[in-house]
Amino acid sequence: YMNTYIINLEKDKSNLQRTKNELKKSNFDMSKVFRFNAVNGKNIHRLDENLHFMCKNMCSDKIIGCGLSHIKLCKELVNKNLKYALIVEDDIINIPSINYQEELNKTLIYFNKKDPNWDIIILHDSGVCKKNEKTNGLFCGSTVSYLISNNGLKKLSQIKLGYHIDHNRNSYYFNTYSGPHLFDVSYEQSKYNYLNKSKIYD
Hints:
The protein has seven helices and eight strands; from the N terminus they run E-H-E-H-H-E-E-H-E-E-H-H-E-E-H. It is α/β, with parallel strands linked by helices. It is 35% helix and 16% strand. The radius of gyration is 16 Å and the shape is globular. A six-stranded mixed sheet has the order 2-1-3-6-5-7, with helices on both faces. It has a two-stranded antiparallel ribbon with strand order 4-8. The longest helix is centred in the middle third of the chain and has 17 residues, at 61-77. It has helices spanning 13-25, 53-58, 61-77, 100-114, 150-158, 165-169, 193-198, and strands at 4-8, 33-37, 84-89, 92-94, 120-122, 145-149, 176-178, 183-185.
């Protein structure tokens, strides 16, 4: 297994434990599973350097917290010389029928052949997605779970949040693909429930 990073708010300890249990049930190597302290958007100043001027005026605290959590995680990982990483939010649900080591390996082999320069592979199918195709300009996928390459880490670490992170990730700046649906979402646990459903509005 590659390194896996769980984005989790400090106060949501039960979500973290539930997510770890989900991964453990699916035989993830827990020595390679790490928690990243999520950003609480309520604590971010609207003049934060990681926010685009549009987001400073239009984004809700939830959108800012979600987006900056992913951006700041990538800033932390970019110098670790990781070839790939799996990033998940703390509301994932594993699918019992899936052999995760096998499916993640198959996904990497497939996309490395299809496009060696891929940045992100989305692993949660929601919205308008074309499987194994680029998501540029589409309302496709979610940040709940995705694979990211070293080049993707570099790109995501350098952007300013313009609106919901899904929109940034599906812009033409990124080489993002819709991969297999490997994770479901527990909307009872999700801090991004409405965001993940609507994509556009907070």
